[in-house]
Specification:
By secondary structure, this protein is an alpha+beta fold. The protein has one domain (4-57). It is built from 1 helix and 5 strands. The chain has one helix at residues 30-48; strands at residues 4-11, 14-19, 22-27, 52-57, 63-69. The chain has a 5-stranded mixed beta sheet, covered by helices on one side. Strand 2 (14-19) and strand 3 (22-27) form a beta hairpin. This is DUF2188 domain-containing protein.
Length: 70
Amino acid sequence: MATSSLQLVKSCGGWQLLDGGKPVLWFPERDKGLEIATIMADARNLYHGLPTAVEAQNDDGEFEVVAAFA
C-alpha cells in the first residue's frame, strides 16, 4: 500500500508545507503549520485509507515524525 508524507520545512522566515515534495501552503508560525498538516494527514487517512505521516524540521534542520496515521 502506498504511503503519504507531509513535511513542514523552514522557508522565507516561516514554514512551508510540502505534500509529496510539492509546496502547498506557507505559515508564519510552526505551530499553525503543524496543526493544519496533522488535520490534513488525519483526513487523508480517514477518507482515503492512506497511511500518512507528518514530518517537521527541528532546529538542527533534521526531520522528525510528529504525527502518523495508519
